[in-house]
Amino acid sequence: MEEKIKLHDREFILSITASQIQDAVARVASAINRDMAGEDLLFISILNGAFMFTADLLKRIGMNCQVTFVKLSSYRDASSTGIIKELIGLNEDIRGRSVIVVEDIVDTGATLGRIMDQLTIHNPKQIRVATLLLKPDVFKGKIPVDYVGLEVPNAFIVGYGLDYNGLGRNLEGIYEIV
Ligand code: IMP
Fold it and tell me: Is the pTM of this model over 0.85?
């Protein structure tokens, strides 16, 4: 694994190795396997960033389950100054089911709050959240994050699904901006 990389105009150094990530993924998977046994389980993966975590996590889930992928589209609300983020691509009926939202990183928690609001209205049996990474110093959300792979400091990171202006998602480790 490279120690230093360059994406666009910025340099990044390795901060979490591929094997540390895989250990974290395994911990999250075994907690889910323990807690969700017997449930009608649907994973909802938030694109784009969560694609790699979702793939590795699902390989370690030992019960029957489904997975679907959704995206948040941003548009400007004409009646206010705010940016509205809407969940698109959810075709599954989640009523009465056990849902696990899969995120790459929870930073302020604003994104997660939007997602939870939009899922809750469809009356699932329960919704849990699994994120590979959490920035606890920034997190202001009120939503409990049930499964956290690793806590990270408040610095900009890329790799393993996370990008810097479109680049870096393919890296198997996580790199911090210099
Ligand atoms: P939040 O709404 O502040 O919690 O931000 C969550 C989203 O911001 C994540 O799903 C990422 O897409 C993006 N994000 C937050 N921190 C980073 C980072 O350090 N690197 C890359 N993307 C990030």
Answer: yes
